[in-house]
Amino acid sequence: MTKQQPPRPTRLMGDHIRAARETRNLSTQTASAQAEISSGYLFKLENGYVGTPSPRVLHRLSQVLGLDYWELMGLAGYVVPTGDDSSPAPAAPPSPAAAPAPLDRIADALEDVRDELRLIRRALEEQRAASPGETP
Protein backbone atom coordinates (compact mmCIF):
# COMPACT_ATOMS: atom_id res chain seq x y z
CA MET A 1 0.00 0.00 0.00
CA THR A 2 1.34 3.43 -0.86
CA LYS A 3 1.77 6.17 1.67
CA GLN A 4 -0.77 8.98 1.24
CA GLN A 5 0.80 12.26 0.19
CA PRO A 6 -1.13 15.37 1.23
CA PRO A 7 -1.96 17.99 -1.39
CA ARG A 8 0.76 20.65 -1.15
CA PRO A 9 -1.32 23.85 -1.00
CA THR A 10 -3.25 22.75 2.05
CA ARG A 11 -0.21 21.49 3.97
CA LEU A 12 0.83 25.07 4.75
CA MET A 13 -2.73 25.85 5.82
CA GLY A 14 -2.73 22.78 8.06
CA ASP A 15 0.52 23.84 9.72
CA HIS A 16 -0.99 27.29 10.29
CA ILE A 17 -4.13 25.82 11.89
CA ARG A 18 -2.13 23.45 14.10
CA ALA A 19 0.18 26.24 15.28
CA ALA A 20 -2.79 28.43 16.22
CA ARG A 21 -4.49 25.54 18.05
CA GLU A 22 -1.33 24.71 19.97
CA THR A 23 -0.71 28.39 20.80
CA ARG A 24 -4.17 28.46 22.39
CA ASN A 25 -3.40 25.19 24.22
CA LEU A 26 -6.42 23.50 22.66
CA SER A 27 -6.54 19.78 22.06
CA THR A 28 -7.73 18.53 18.69
CA GLN A 29 -10.94 17.34 20.35
CA THR A 30 -11.64 20.66 22.08
CA ALA A 31 -10.92 22.78 19.00
CA SER A 32 -12.99 20.54 16.73
CA ALA A 33 -15.91 20.55 19.17
CA GLN A 34 -15.84 24.34 19.38
CA ALA A 35 -15.70 24.59 15.57
CA GLU A 36 -18.48 21.98 15.28
CA ILE A 37 -16.45 19.64 13.07
CA SER A 38 -15.21 16.13 13.75
CA SER A 39 -11.80 15.69 15.34
CA GLY A 40 -10.90 13.39 12.44
CA TYR A 41 -11.65 16.16 9.96
CA LEU A 42 -9.52 18.62 11.94
CA PHE A 43 -6.70 16.06 11.95
CA LYS A 44 -6.98 15.77 8.17
CA LEU A 45 -6.99 19.55 7.80
CA GLU A 46 -3.90 19.94 9.97
CA ASN A 47 -2.05 17.27 8.02
CA GLY A 48 -2.96 18.56 4.56
CA TYR A 49 -5.21 15.67 3.58
CA VAL A 50 -8.19 17.86 2.66
CA GLY A 51 -7.84 19.17 -0.87
CA THR A 52 -10.53 21.83 -0.74
CA PRO A 53 -11.87 22.62 2.73
CA SER A 54 -15.21 24.40 2.69
CA PRO A 55 -15.35 28.12 3.41
CA ARG A 56 -17.87 27.37 6.15
CA VAL A 57 -15.41 25.13 8.01
CA LEU A 58 -12.60 27.65 7.54
CA HIS A 59 -14.83 30.39 8.95
CA ARG A 60 -15.60 28.35 12.06
CA LEU A 61 -11.95 27.51 12.60
CA SER A 62 -10.93 31.14 12.14
CA GLN A 63 -13.32 32.13 14.92
CA VAL A 64 -12.25 29.36 17.30
CA LEU A 65 -8.52 29.81 16.70
CA GLY A 66 -8.44 33.58 16.30
CA LEU A 67 -7.15 33.38 12.74
CA ASP A 68 -7.86 35.72 9.84
CA TYR A 69 -10.58 34.13 7.71
CA TRP A 70 -9.28 35.50 4.40
CA GLU A 71 -5.75 34.32 5.18
CA LEU A 72 -7.08 30.79 5.74
CA MET A 73 -9.05 31.01 2.51
CA GLY A 74 -5.89 32.01 0.65
CA LEU A 75 -3.87 29.21 2.24
CA ALA A 76 -6.61 26.77 1.20
CA GLY A 77 -6.18 27.85 -2.42
CA TYR A 78 -9.21 30.10 -2.77
CA VAL A 79 -8.93 33.42 -4.61
CA VAL A 80 -9.15 36.16 -2.00
CA PRO A 81 -9.47 39.92 -2.34
CA THR A 82 -6.35 41.99 -1.90
CA GLY A 83 -6.01 45.56 -0.70
CA ASP A 84 -5.34 46.85 -4.22
CA ASP A 85 -8.43 45.28 -5.80
CA SER A 86 -10.91 47.78 -7.16
CA SER A 87 -13.77 45.39 -6.50
CA PRO A 88 -15.47 45.51 -3.12
CA ALA A 89 -14.44 42.87 -0.62
CA PRO A 90 -16.93 40.03 -0.34
CA ALA A 91 -18.97 39.88 2.80
CA ALA A 92 -17.92 37.42 5.47
CA PRO A 93 -19.81 34.15 5.36
CA PRO A 94 -22.87 33.82 7.55
CA SER A 95 -22.29 32.83 11.14
CA PRO A 96 -22.43 29.12 11.95
CA ALA A 97 -25.77 29.73 13.66
CA ALA A 98 -27.26 30.61 10.26
CA ALA A 99 -27.48 26.94 9.26
CA PRO A 100 -28.92 24.23 11.48
CA ALA A 101 -26.21 22.23 13.26
CA PRO A 102 -27.44 18.81 12.02
CA LEU A 103 -27.17 19.99 8.41
CA ASP A 104 -23.66 21.26 9.06
CA ARG A 105 -22.65 17.91 10.49
CA ILE A 106 -24.10 16.13 7.45
CA ALA A 107 -22.26 18.50 5.11
CA ASP A 108 -19.00 17.92 7.01
CA ALA A 109 -19.51 14.15 6.87
CA LEU A 110 -20.13 14.32 3.12
CA GLU A 111 -16.96 16.36 2.69
CA ASP A 112 -15.06 13.70 4.65
CA VAL A 113 -16.49 10.98 2.39
CA ARG A 114 -15.59 12.98 -0.74
CA ASP A 115 -12.02 13.42 0.46
CA GLU A 116 -11.69 9.73 1.34
CA LEU A 117 -12.99 8.75 -2.10
CA ARG A 118 -10.41 11.01 -3.75
CA LEU A 119 -7.65 9.34 -1.74
CA ILE A 120 -8.93 5.88 -2.67
CA ARG A 121 -9.18 6.85 -6.34
CA ARG A 122 -5.64 8.25 -6.29
CA ALA A 123 -4.31 5.08 -4.63
CA LEU A 124 -6.06 2.89 -7.22
CA GLU A 125 -4.68 4.99 -10.07
CA GLU A 126 -1.17 4.73 -8.63
CA GLN A 127 -1.59 0.98 -8.22
CA ARG A 128 -2.75 0.62 -11.84
CA ALA A 129 0.13 2.77 -13.08
CA ALA A 130 2.63 0.64 -11.15
CA SER A 131 1.38 -2.58 -12.78
CA PRO A 132 0.18 -1.66 -16.30
CA GLY A 133 0.15 -5.24 -17.62
CA GLU A 134 -2.36 -6.53 -15.09
CA THR A 135 -6.11 -6.08 -15.34
CA PRO A 136 -8.35 -6.20 -12.29
Automatic annotation (TrEMBL):
This is Helix-turn-helix domain-containing protein. InterPro entries: Cro/C1-type_HTH, Lambda_DNA-bd_dom_sf. Residues 17-72 form the HTH cro/C1-type domain. Pfam families: HTH_31. The lineage of its organism: Bacteria, Bacillati, Actinomycetota, Actinomycetes, Kitasatosporales. Signal peptide: none annotated. Residues 81-105 are annotated as: Disordered. CDD domains: HTH_XRE. It comes from the Bacteria. GO terms for molecular function: DNA binding. Residues 90-99 have a biased composition (Pro residues).
